[in-house]
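Annex B. Sample input.
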Amino acid sequence: MEKLGPGDEDLIRVASLARQRAHAPYSKYKVGAAVRTKRNKIYSGANVENASYGLTVCAERCAVFAAVAAGETKYYDAIAIVIDDDKLPTPCGACRQVIAEFAPDVRVVLATTGGLRKATTLTALLPEPFLPGNLS
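Annex B, continued. Sample output.
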């Protein structure tokens, strides 16, 4: 486990605001995420559920996709994930893989609205990811 770094609380605040905009009428499990680039730009996302559950998109992927859509396709510094629970969130396997595509060594900041905090790395959460180099 790592200590929180400079700017991590700001990243958590942005993710918390995104969590408030989550569309989670089925699970009631609202998640917010924010990714910070090494150029210090922040992109956020919230989970968006769909009645056809397979079409639901997680907050982490929304944040990464927002960064990619803005032209930020690599060099992410950190991603924060926030939930309102008594235990810390962890990204699902699909989100871990998507994050790895753009930032395999990114710091991951896990947080709750109640004040729990933990910093880790994507490498710790997803050892040996499938990356573009696996295709050659």
